[in-house]
Design a protein that fits this description.
Largest sheet: 4 strands, antiparallel
Oligomer: single chain
Radius of gyration: 20 Å
CATH topology: Glycosyltransferase
Structural class: alpha+beta
Low-confidence stretches: none
Number of helices: 14
CATH class: Mainly Alpha
Shape: globular
Strand content: 5-15%
Number of strands: 18
Distance between the termini: 34 Å
CATH superfamily: Glycoside hydrolase 144 (GH144)
């Protein structure tokens, strides 16, 4: 049953990025992928980053021909080069899937651009096509990290985003168009490699940026790890979807892979401890992370965290992407979640695999009717890394990443 359910989930996760993509010939939004199925007309560049990665996985698993995948990838690269609005090479987070224009007053996002570039690196590493290589170079050379660097507590950190609209997303009424900063450990780890891979970022700046964010230790019971203030499970997954931290320690000897293993086990323990409060959770039903809940899309945050304890941070919803996005960390423990879902809640599996979340409301089972691109993306990429290691091999072998590893002083185990 194990490989069958994993392969089924992998295939149906791929279908999300194939079916929710704009593949209309000559469309200005060609290659853009819906952020979620609530608003399919709203695309996100993060969904595109996962989608580019999943197309390669799709070829390797026989879901799509290499010729068709190459056509989609090249068309997507052209769309980003010619039609998607950017600031210093950082793209608008949300855009209209049909024409590529900014969606309402969306921000220009560092982390979402990084997810897009990560997917582009996988494609550039996989396809032997000179036109694609040329477009890839233009995409990565366009990204200028320097305007997005600032000082915080006498350390160099990246800014999070930029929004020229005073009442735009994440900016509110602020007069400053620059939105917050990555001064904490979060999902941005791969950003330091992408910056270090640039020739215009010298080694000292690259290392200062990597060393600039806070590394706060926290504990849940006996599990101690560097945690994010908003302690959802996707934090410990996203950069690991592409960079194979299993094989490297940083220049100080720190093990980011093991940190994610511990964070995953802490999340599981927290779910087991709270199964009496949230009956959907349990030994084989864990993985609290951001997902669709009966109250909308919410971040589910376990302890420890740095948020207001009087606010609601757990919505008692089981997101399949939580455990399956952690499958390279705990293997069989994640598999058991998928097997239990199929056994106990077969209706939780739909056209794009497992739906985004499920819970009980007044004793009745509630299942989200929608899917979220980044959750299907982390699920599919991590399952394939666990089964085949496709993305790890391609990403880690790319000259851009090899150069970044050397510049940051990461060492093979």
């Amino acid at each position: 049953m194990t490989n069958n359910i994993l392969n089924q989930e992998l295939y149906h996760s791929f279908l999300y990025f194939y079916k929710q993509a704009n593949l209309k010939e000559n469309s200005r939004g060609y290659g853009l992928i819906s952020d979620d199925t609530f608003q399919p007309e709203r695309a996100s560049i993060a969904s595109v980053g996962f989608g580019l990665t999943m197309y390669v996985i799709g070829v390797e698993n026989g879901y799509i021909t290499k010729e068709e995948a190459l056509k989609i990838v090249k068309g997507t690269f052209r769309t980003f080069l010619d039609n998607i609005s950017h600031v210093y090479g950082f793209y608008v987070h949300y855009c209209n899937r049909d024409d590529g224009l900014p969606f309402k007053k969306s921000e220009y996002s560092t982390i979402d651009t990084v997810l897009f570039i990560n997917g582009a690196i996988v494609c550039d590493s996989y396809f032997d096509d000179q036109e694609l290589h040329s477009m890839f170079l233009r995409l990565v050379q366009r990204v200028d990290y320097k305007p997005f660097i600032m000082e915080y507590n006498d350390k160099l950190v990246f800014r999070m985003a930029y929004n020229p609209h005073e009442d735009g997303d994440y900016r509110g009424k602020s007069v400053d168009p620059w939105i917050y900063h990555w001064h904490m450990y979060a999902e941005q780890l791969s950003m330091y490699f992408l910056a270090a891979g640039k020739d215009d970022i010298d080694e000292k700046t690259a290392r200062d940026l990597y060393e600039g964010f806070e590394r706060n230790l926290g504990k849940y019971k006996n599990y101690e790890y560097i945690y994010c203030p908003t302690n959802a499970l996707f934090i410990y997954q996203y950069s690991h979807a592409w960079f194979d931290f299993r094989k490297y320690l940083d220049s100080f000897g720190f093990d980011w892979y093991q940190n994610s293993v511990i964070a995953t086990k802490a999340n599981k323990e927290y779910c087991i401890d709270n199964k009496n409060i949230y009956p959907i959770l349990g030994e084989n039903a864990w993985g609290l992370t951001a997902c669709i809940t009966p109250e909308g899309y919410r971040n589910q945050i376990i302890e420890p965290n740095d948020l207001n304890p009087n606010e609601k941070h757990v919505f008692g919803v089981l997101p399949p992407s939580g455990a399956l996005g952690s499958i390279p960390f705990v293997g069989e423990e994640s598999v058991m979640v998928a097997e239990d879902l199929i056994r106990n809640y077969p209706e939780s599996f739909g056209p794009y695999g497992f739906y985004d979340g499920l819970t009980y409301i007044n004793g009745k089972l509630w299942i989200s009717e929608a899917y979220v691109g980044i959750n299907k993306g982390i699920t599919g990429v991590m399952i394939d890394n666990y089964l085949n290691g496709t993305v790890y091999k391609l990403y880690m072998s790319h000259p851009y990443i090899k150069k970044a590893i050397k510049k940051l002083g990461f060492k093979e185990r």
